[in-house]
Amino acid sequence: MVACAIGSRRKTGNARVPEPARSVDLDRYTGRWYEFARYDNHFEHGRDFVTADYAKRDDGLISVINTGREGRADGLRPIARGKARVMPDSSNAKLKVSFFGPFYVGDYWVLDHADDHRWSIVGEPSGAYLWILKREPKPAVAVQHALLERVGALGYDLSMLRKTQH
User: Fold this and answer.
1) Within a domain: 16
2) What is the Cα–Cα distance from 95 to 87, expressed in whole angstroms?
3) Mean pLDDT, range 64-86, rounded to an integer
4) Structural domain tally of the chain?
5) CATH number for the domain including 142?
6) How many C-beta atoms lie closer than 10 Å to residue 80's C-beta?
7) Residue 9 — pLDDT band, cuts 50, 70, 90?
C-alpha cells in the first residue's frame, strides 16, 4: 500500500514532482488512513479496501502497517509491516520507509495535506507513485473533486489514478 517507492522504471505520472508544500505534525499525521486513490503498482495490484496505520515508536521511528483486500471485501488481506524515519531538514514531510530489515530505500513525501490532517497527498521523487489518503473511507463528492483538482495542480496525470473501493 502506501509503502515505498524504490528506484523505478515505471511510467512517470509527473515529470516534475514538487517539494512538499508544508511541514507535517507527526502527532496529527499518525493514525489510520484510507486510500482514496493511487497510481497502481505491483505491490498493491488488484487491492481495494486499503488502509495505512502509522504510529510513533519509542525509538523515534514510525510504525507502518499497510493492509488491503484482494479482489473483494472478503478477499485475502495481506499485511505489510514496516517502519519509517523522518529525513533531516524536511519539516517531517519526507520519510524513508523500510519493509526489509535495516534498509531504508523507499521515499515517502507528504506533498500536501489538509490543515486538520483529514487528507494527504503522498508521492516520491520519480513521479511514478502517488497516493491520495483520507481519514474516512468514503469522502464526500465535493471533497473528492477538490482532492483531484489539487493533485492535478501538483502536476500529476489524473488519467493514471485508480480509485480504491471501500
Assistant:
1) no
2) 5
3) 87
4) 1
5) 2.40.128.20
6) 17
7) low
For residue 159, being part of any structural domain is answered with: yes
- Cell numbers given for 39: 497510481
3-state DSSP percent of the chain in helix, strand and coil, to 5: 10, 40, 50
Q: Does residue 1 sit within a domain?
A: no
How far apart are the C-alpha atoms of 166 and 164, rounded to whole Å? Answer: 7
Which helix (H) or strand (E) is 111 found in, with range? strand 106-113
**What is the distance between the alpha carbons of residues 55 and 84, in angstroms, rounded to a whole number?**
10
DSSP-assigned letter for residue 42: T
User: Domain range for residue 32?
Assistant: 26-163
In this structure, what C-alpha cell is assigned to residue 106? 523507499
Residue with cell 526489509: 100
Phi, psi for 144 (deg, rounded to 5): -60, -50
Q: What is the pLDDT of residues 105-154, one digit of tens each?
A: 889 999 999 999 999 999 999 999 999 999 999 999 999 999 999 999 99
